[in-house]
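Lecture notes, part 5. Sequence design as translation. It can be helpful to think of inverse folding as translation between two languages: the language of shapes and the language of residues. The source text, in structure tokens, appears below.
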């Protein structure tokens, strides 16, 4: 892909301007070109680690100390969520892999390691042994699993390595097997939510989530599945996970090729939805690049090509590089059915764009 260095330079300048404008705050969706502070609004919100990820990736790439300082501020702020505890959920992987664990990986900070281990203990504690899954979300969703969880379980693999204790990875493997069995369909698409009886662990039904319906294919969920299963393969060497990632990747590429590689919010909505979800493209791009780097060169080529097509489509028409406004990637969608949260910037789309560009240079920090 051309101009990667130029893009990364422009992105770094933009992120530095965002740090200066938003001292110590935690971005999510820019409104009228400005981030609000999710640290004030909801400290346990699932996306609160992604700007940390942006900062650690760019610090790893540029060495600019301002980036590290802002990342450390966010990490410290998140202590409130760990202490309050009650609102924590299965997305603790997203929150702490990109903040405390990233810091520990980069600097060896022992306090950061402890934060990461506390988050891993929270995730492990959500395991349902009769159903062999890690429960999603809170409240009455006691028996739910969701495809997004595949990106959180790397926290358990990290804890196993760190503590030299296989219990954490045993839970990650059991959960991935359950997700693979119940959420991945024969055509390579993925359901968003599966519901189980939390007492005896029996499967009940699929439930529509952020996509169109229970039997549709929410594009961001397909992205989580591609990247999540490649990562499970990377952590375990289980070839079934790699084959699952390939099947979902083929499905994703065939579906997104219908809309010039800018994915619709759901690939199985009855009418081709005009609204886009660029975050799905950025997450899938990272998964596809990882897949291409995992497979033999000839077999992997098609996935790298697909990733570059999506990155190019988004970079050419859905990005804002201005250093005067917050938020880089436009055209994201929170949820198929919500009226708001369409055609917006999403902090995780920015994160995965940066990770994808660095991955193409093989210069990324491994946060998974
Ligand atoms: N993990 C929720 C989402 O992808 O929107």
């Amino acid at each position: 892909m051309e101009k990667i260095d130029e893009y990364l330079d422009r992105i770094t300048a933009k992120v530095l301007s965002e740090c200066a404008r938003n001292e110590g705050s935690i971005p999510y969706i820019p409104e009228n070109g400005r981030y609000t502070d999710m640290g004030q609004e909801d400290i346990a919100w699932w996306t609160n680690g992604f700007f940390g990820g942006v900062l650690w990736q760019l610090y790893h790439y540029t060495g600019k100390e301002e980036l590290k300082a802002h990342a450390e501020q966010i990490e410290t702020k998140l202590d409130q969520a760990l202490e309050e505890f009650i609102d924590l959920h299965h997305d603790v992987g997203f929150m702490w892999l990109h903040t405390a664990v990233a810091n520990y990986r980069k600097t060896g900070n022992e306090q950061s390691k402890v934060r990461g281990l506390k988050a891993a203990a929270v995730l492990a504690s959500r395991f349902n042994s009769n159903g062999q899954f890690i429960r999603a979300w809170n409240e009455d969703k006691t028996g739910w699993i969701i495809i997004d969880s595949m990106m959180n379980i790397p926290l358990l693999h990290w804890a196993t390595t760190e503590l030299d204790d296989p219990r954490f990875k045993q839970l990650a493997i059991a959960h991935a097997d359950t997700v693979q069995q119940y959420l991945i369909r024969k055509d390579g698409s993925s359901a968003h939510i599966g519901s189980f009886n939390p007492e005896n662990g029996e499967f009940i039904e699929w439930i529509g989530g952020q996509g169109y319906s229970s039997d549709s294919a929410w594009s961001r969920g397909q992205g989580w599945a591609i990247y999540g299963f490649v990562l499970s393969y990377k952590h375990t060497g289980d070839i079934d996970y790699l084959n699952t990632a390939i099947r979902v990747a083929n499905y994703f590429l065939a579906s997104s090729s219908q809309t010039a590689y800018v994915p619709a919010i759901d690939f199985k909505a009855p009418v081709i939805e005009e609204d886009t979800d660029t975050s799905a493209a950025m997450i899938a791009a990272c998964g596809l690049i990882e897949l291409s780097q995992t497979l033999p060169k000839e077999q992997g080529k098609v996935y790298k090509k697909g990733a570059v097509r999506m990155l190019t489509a988004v970079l050419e028409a859905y990005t804002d590089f201005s250093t005067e406004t917050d938020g880089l990637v436009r055209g994201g969608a929170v949820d198929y059915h919500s009226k708001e949260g369409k055609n917006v910037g999403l902090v995780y789309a920015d994160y995965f764009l940066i990770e994808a560009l660095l991955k193409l240079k093989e210069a990324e920090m491994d946060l998974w």
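The translated text above is only one of many valid answers, since several sequences can fold into similar shapes. Residues 46, 148, 210, 220 surround glycine (CB under 6 Å).
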